[in-house]
Amino acid sequence: MATNAPCGLVSLNNVGSVVPKNENEMEQNQTQMSKDKNTNIDYTQRAQWLRAAVLGANDGLVSVASLMMGVGAVKRDVKAMLLAGFAGSIAGACGMAIGEFVSVYTQYEVEVSQMKRDMNMNGYKEECEKVGFDMRIQKKRISLPNPLHAALASALSFTMGALVPLLSAAFISDYRSRLLVVVAMASLALMVIGILGAEFGKTPKLWSCIRVLVGGWMAMAVTFGLTKSIGSSGLVL
């Protein structure tokens, strides 16, 4: 049973719930609930597209920069480095797009086939085919990324990453300066990729930067060193 309370105080109803003092308090409560709803984000839902974007950009940057460093180890001509980087960016973008399309489409087919097997094992084949199966297929189609969208995203992110070393070396004629600028710009871009990936996924930024940065340095160093050693042995024309 509700009790009388002075104006401006909180009163209790018969089930013990709190009644807001006035309309302002109700508006404040609604605003707070809206903020809580907006901040309650399931970041695991971002994992699929975030993985593809980070992988594409990182792969484009590291592979093209390493390729240009490898060519630069035996060829001082800027045209040779740029041609190798351009060819690598085109081939890599096509490879990433095709690979992502096949991967996502294969994942979709596996998910659908597994659902069919589960339904057959549970003895709900006819009923599920009439009603439930179509609904579950629709949910899976929503949860899985579109193969074409994934392919385009991977190709675009790879190309964006590849542009960094290409543009870095395009206007530098001096050989040593060109190599240093490619490494420096690639390192800076790797740090940006690490920070953005951590920001979107809400993970530690420091370790994210260290992972991509060290990995990129290792790839460029190994490619440069092995190509240099092969060129020194006289195997490179």
Explain what you see:
The chain has seven helices and two strands, in the order ββααααααα. Strand 1 and strand 2 (18-19) form a beta hairpin. The longest helix is centred in the middle third of the chain and has 44 residues, at 78-121. The chain is elongated and about 70 Å long. The chain starts with 10 loop residues before the first strand and ends in a 5-residue tail after the last helix. Strands 1-2 form a two-stranded antiparallel ribbon. Helix 2 packs antiparallel against helix 3. 79% of the residues lie in helices and 2% in strands. The chain has helices at residues 23-39, 47-74, 78-121, 125-143, 147-170, 175-201, 205-232, and strands spanning 11-12, 18-19. The protein is mostly helical and 237 residues long. It has one domain.
Whole-number total of structural domains: 1
Q: Uncertain segments of ≥5 residues (pLDDT<50)?
A: 1-21, 34-39
* C-alpha end-to-end distance: 96 Å
Q: Reading side by side through the largest sheet, how are the strands ordered?
A: 1-2
Largest sheet: 2 strands, antiparallel
Order of helices and strands: EEHHHHHHH
What would the average pLDDT be, to the nearest integer? 75
- Fraction of residues in H or I helices: over 70%
Q: By helix and strand content, what is the structural category?
A: mainly alpha
Q: How many helices?
A: 7
Rg over CA atoms, rounded to whole Å, is: 28 Å
Strand fraction equals under 5%
Oligomer: single chain
Question: What does the overall shape look like?
Answer: elongated
List how many beta strands DSSP finds: 2
